[in-house]
Amino acid sequence: MEISIVGSGYVGTTIAACFAEVGHDVVNVDIDEEIVETINDGRAPIHEPGLDELVVEHAGDRLRATTDYGAVRDTDATFLALPTPSEADGHIDLSIMEAGARSLGAALAEKDDYHVVVTKSTVVPTTTEEVIAPILAEESGKVLGQDLGIGMNPEFLREGSAVSDFLDPDKIVLGAESDRAKATLRGVFEPLAERAGEPPIVETGVAEAEMIKYANNGFLAAKISLANDLANICKEYGIDSEEVLEAIGLDHRIGAAFLGAGVGWGGSCFPKDVAAIIAAARDVGYEPAMLQAAVEVNDRQPVRLLELLRGHVDPDGARVAVLGLAFKPGTDDIRNSRALPLVDALVDAGADVVGYDPVATENFRERYPDIDYAETAEAALDDADAALVVTDWPEFADLDEAFDAMATPIVVDGRRIVTRREGIVYESLV
Ligand code: UDX
C-alpha cells in the first residue's frame, strides 16, 4: 500500500521505516528540511537500535521524506505522528496536531478518492473525532464517512527497543469510525501481523483506541508505583523487597514485568500520559484516585533516597556522586529523569554534586551547567563522600574497587544495581 506519515520524530521515523520494511511504499512528511534530507540520505534522524539499517535499506526506494504535504495525495492513508506536549497543568497541547491536521486537510482538498487519516500520536479520548476530524473535513471539503475515513492506532514503543517493539508487537490496536476505514487499517497492518506471527488485533472505536494507550501506560506506571509502595513497606520492616516482588511476579495474574522497584518512573511518556489522563478525567468530572496516588508515590521516591543519604551524611558541603542521569539505561534521554528532582534537592541542601552517565551527560549539563561532571563512574566516585545510584546502567553493578577511592564509601542505591562488597556502607532505597 501507499502510506504517508506526518511527523518525523521518534515515532514517525520509526513507523515510516518499519512500514517500508514490511513492504509498503512510505512517504514521511515533515516541515524540518534537515530531517527530511537526513532520511533521504539514508540516515536515521534519531538514534534507535536497528533504525539506521532500515533507513539505509529503504531510503530512495520504498521510503522517502519530503516537506511537501501534497505527497499525501498519492497515498491511501496518512498517519499523524506529531508531538502532543504537556501544558503546565498536565493537559496536552494540541496546537501542533491541529496545525498538522490543517495542512493535511488542505492537501487532501485536491484528492478525489477516499482517504483515511489515522491518529498515531497520544491524544486524550474523543480528540480525534471532536478536534482533528472537523479540521480535516473543513480544510479538505471532504465528508467524514464518505470520502474521508478516520482512525486511531496507538503506539506502545519503548525508547531503545522501538524497532523491535514495532515489528514484534504484543497487540495491534485499530480504532476506526467505519468499516471502510477499518478495512484500510487492516490492509496496512496485514503484512506486519503476518511477519510478527499474527499477534492479536484489537478492532475498536476511535475513542476506545485513544483510551487504550492511556490505560496501558497508566497501568504500567501504577504497577511500578505499587511495587514501590510495597517495597517501601518491606524496607521499613527490613524485608528483602526483591524477593517479595519476584515471588508475586510468578502469579500469572500479576506478571513479573514492571515490578522493578526503585527511584521511580520517568521518560517522555509515563509522566506526560499519566498527567494528561488525570487532567482529562477531571475535566469530565472524575477524580482518578489510583493514578493520582501513582504520581504521589513516584514523586516521593527521590525524596526518600535523599532522606536515606541524610541518615549517613549531611549533604551540606558533602561531595555527592550521582550515578546515572538518563531516565532509564540505554538512552541519553533525560526527560523526567528521576535524577532531575534529586539533583535539585541535593543542590538545595548545599551538596557539591558530581554527575556521571555513560551517555546522557551532555543533555543533563544543558539543564544543570553548574554542577560537576565526571567522564567515568570511577572519576565521579573519586574523593566523594557519598554516591547515589539513580539509573540502572549495567556498569554500576561492577564498580567494585572504584568505591575504595571514595572519601567515605557510602552508597545509597536507588535501583538495587550495585553489587555489595566488603568495605562499603551500602543502603538500598527499597
Ligand atoms: C514507555 C512504555 O513502556 C511504552 O509502551 C510507551 O509507548 C512509552 O512509554 P519508555 O518511556 O521508553 O516506554 O520506557 P520504559 O522502559 O517503559 O520505562 C519507563 C520508566 O519506568 C523508566 O524511568 C524506568 O526506569 C521505569 N521503570 C520501568 C521502573 O522503575 N521499573 C520497572 O520495572 C520498569
From TrEMBL:
Belongs to the UDP-glucose/GDP-mannose dehydrogenase family. Signal peptide: none annotated. Residues 321-420 form the UDP-glucose/GDP-mannose dehydrogenase C-terminal domain. Keywords: NAD, Oxidoreductase. This is UDP-glucose 6-dehydrogenase. Coiled coil: none annotated. InterPro entries: 6-PGluconate_DH-like_C_sf (IPR008927), NAD(P)-bd_dom_sf (IPR036291), UDP-Glc/GDP-Man (IPR017476), UDP-Glc/GDP-Man_DH_C (IPR014027), UDP-Glc/GDP-Man_DH_C_sf (IPR036220), UDP-Glc/GDP-Man_DH_dimer (IPR014026), UDP-Glc/GDP-Man_DH_N (IPR001732), UDPGDh_AglM (IPR054886). It comes from the Archaea. It catalyses: UDP-alpha-D-glucose + 2 NAD(+) + H2O = UDP-alpha-D-glucuronate + 2 NADH + 3 H(+). Pathway: Nucleotide-sugar biosynthesis; UDP-alpha-D-glucuronate biosynthesis; UDP-alpha-D-glucuronate from UDP-alpha-D-glucose: step 1/1. GO terms for molecular function: UDP-glucose 6-dehydrogenase activity. NAD(+) binds at residues 30, 84, 122, 159, 272, 335. The keyword NAD applies. Substrate binds at residues 156-159, 213, 258-262, 266, 328. Its EC number is 1.1.1.22. The active site is at residue 269. SMART domains: UDPG_MGDP_dh_C. It is an enzyme of class 1 (oxidoreductase). It comes from Halobellus rubicundus.
